[in-house]
Design a protein that fits this description.
602 residues, mainly alpha, Growth Hormone, Chain: A, 17 helices, globular
Length: 602
């Protein structure tokens, strides 16, 4: 059924806004949702619940993947790190396809259902690879080389999980954010908190994965861990389905690529026409006519694209609305294209942060493997991947302090509903990632020196507690930048592309994994050409990770300078007012004047 906005008299608009959700969403029956019965935290909690189990499964596999590849599949360090980065890269780039399908065809709820089913298929195959005799890694407890059948089944299983993650991640997070209406002041504030608490739930899943699940993998068995992950995922999927009556739904809007192409074609066709200085002379629908989202105000950047909304002949009897969309676009469609173009430099200059973030699940874990992980006074040995829990704890603590302490103080100081702008938050996290790489370089040099001093006694290794600072500081960086990127890409994309927006955020990490592989290959080759010895040997003691970390620190520092320049010139989305003043505020709460907001990242 087509969802139309409620026609209201001015005196009734406030009451209707409190009773009904007027943002083009529907309830489970396809009708306009009642605010008191749908959405907000009553719905978001179901969604955060299944995200907990998905992150439990993903990090239960990813954080111990290097260990699995080196101990079970007997790959060397460089090959294991590359395979981990390839899988991580594919997993975080697949959401681009999943987000497109969700926004254009299946809808976010439908995509979550399909993706979770594929995810479960991967977990089931992973479990079977440990219990079906023909798929087991080895016939005996000790073996030099795993069976090919197990290797094939394992990689098929984890790449099925990649496909499932591709649909699950962008659709679920944006579906959760859809439960809060931007046009309602209270729910808009809830949405700003949603991304913080989403990440707190996410980190709870990570924390459980890298402590309980990783311990089970190392001490009891990978097969037992796979059974647990499958059961937890299936149970949370069932609970997610129970929440169906409480959700608010957005209908898929068709391919977002077609309207973008129409804007470019119309602008090129009218390239010789003058563009009016008064944006009110450009073609736009009224709030009553536009029922598929929110109208955007015209901005002053990329003025060439405004020609797509220029009405060629105002004396014609034919109404502008009846002209071909390939010849005449609305201001909103033009602004949506501008938003996507403006995101390109932001996306590019966050890749360096993504490269730093990938170290936590690859090289950081490999460092932990060869360090002393005994707990003083006991025989208990901490699994290497469990050190990743320090990042999860750091994120939870930082997000809680930021949400409960810093945001209220910053709101009063800046007058910004968010406390600081989204890009300021991202930039702060980048600075912490720089500190994390510097700390990692210093600690690795200390570990290498310690190993040389005690090379005669192989049992003498540096305590893994020395790795704690780099994990904790990188967790603070994630709390600022990763959460900021989620909010930025969801908030600033066109309303019809919000699943793709989350996919754009994830693609930063996916592309960064491939960039990381490239940096490893190039730096290792150059080091070998210059000094005769590469930075990556067969083991860590014959490698020079400290120099690699210093290189990442230098690249991050240069990248931060470029990011600041781009962020200071960035223009945030401005939404036209309808029943209430609606704004996607980047710096300040926008008013009904339609003035564009420019980032003040200082």
């Amino acid at each position: 059924m087509e969802h139309n906005k409620v026609d209201t008299e001015p005196q009734d608009s406030y009451d209707d806004q409190q009773k009904w959700v007027l943002d083009s969403s529907t309830d489970s029956r396809g009708e306009i949702p009642l605010r008191a019965q749908t959405g907000a935290w009553r719905a978001a909690l179901f969604i955060i619940g299944i995200e907990f189990s998905e992150r439990l499964s993903y990090f239960g596999i990813s954080t111990n993947l290097v260990v699995y590849l080196t101990t079970i599949l007997h790959q060397d360090l460089k090959m294991a790190v590359k395979n981990t980065n390839y899988w991580s890269g594919v997993t975080t780039l697949m959401p681009l396809l999943g987000g497109f399908v969700a926004d254009a065809y299946l809808g976010r709820y439908g995509t979550v259902l399909l993706a979770t089913t594929i995810y479960l298929m991967g977990l089931i195959l992973l479990t079977l690879s440990w219990f079906i005799p023909g798929l087991k890694a080895c016939h005996e407890d000790m073996c030099v080389e795993p069976r090919k059948a197990h290797e094939i089944a394992f990689f098929i299983a984890i790449y099925l999980i990649s496909i499932g993650t591709g649909g699950h991640k962008p659709s679920l997070e944006s579906f959760g954010a859809d439960q809060f209406e931007d046009g309602h002041p209270e729910e808009r504030k809830m949405k700003m908190s949603y991304f913080n608490w989403w990440n707190a739930g996410l980190c709870a899943g990570i924390l459980t994965a890298v402590t309980v699940i990783v311990y089970i993998e190392d001490r009891i068995g990978w097969g037992v861990a796979s059974i647990i992950l499958t059961i937890v995922m299936a149970t949370s999927f069932f609970i997610f389905r129970i929440g169906k009556p409480f959700y608010r739904y957005r209908a898929p809007s068709g391919s977002p690529l077609t309207p973008m192409l129409q804007v470019f074609v119309a602008a090129i066709a009218k390239r010789n026409l003058p563009c009016p200085s008064d944006s009110s002379l450009l073609h736009e629908l009224t709030n009553e006519e536009y029922t598929k989202g929110r109208l955007l105000s015209s901005s002053k950047n990329l003025k060439f694209l405004d020609k797509a909304a220029v009405i060629e002949d105002r004396n014609e009897n034919t109404k502008a609305e009846k002209q071909s969309p390939w010849r005449l676009a609305t201001v909103t469609k033009v602004e949506e294209v501008k938003l996507l173009i403006n995101m390109i430099p932001i996306w590019f200059f966050t890749l360096a942060f993504g490269v730093c973030a990938t170290q936590s699940s690859t090289l950081f874990i490999k460092q932990a493997i060869i360090m002393d992980r005994h707990i003083t006074g006991t025989n208990f040995i901490v699994p290497p991947a469990s050190l990743f829990s320090l990042i999860a704890l750091s994120i939870i603590i930082t997000v809680t302090i930021y949400e409960k302490l810093l945001v209220p103080l910053l709101r009063r100081a800046t007058g910004n509903e968010r406390g600081i702008s989204i890009l300021q938050r991202i930039g702060i996290g980048m600075v912490f990632s720089l500190f994390a790489m510097i700390i990692a370089a210093l600690i690795e040099k200390k570990r290498l020196d310690y190993a040389k001093e005690h090379h005669m006694n192989k049992t003498m290794t540096l305590s893994a507690i020395w790795l704690a600072p780099q994990f904790l500081v990188l967790g603070v960086a994630d709390a600022f930048t990763l959460v900021g990127l989620q909010e930025y890409f969801y908030d600033q994309v066109p309303d019809s592309m919000r699943s793709l927006g989350i996919a754009f955020y994830l693609s930063v990490l996916g592309a960064a994994s491939f960039v990381n592989n490239l940096l490893i290959t190039v730096s290792d080759h150059l080091a070998e050409e210059i000094s005769g010895k590469g930075w990556f040997g067969k083991d860590l003691n014959s490698s020079r990770l400290d120099r690699f970390y210093w290189m990442l620190a230098a690249l991050t520092a240069a990248n931060i300078c470029c990011f600041v320049i781009v962020a200071m010139r960035y223009t945030y989305k401005t939404v036209q007012p309808s029943l209430a003043v609606v704004a996607d505020c980047g710096d300040d709460v926008e008013t009904a004047t339609g003035t564009n907001n420019t980032s003040k990242l200082t």
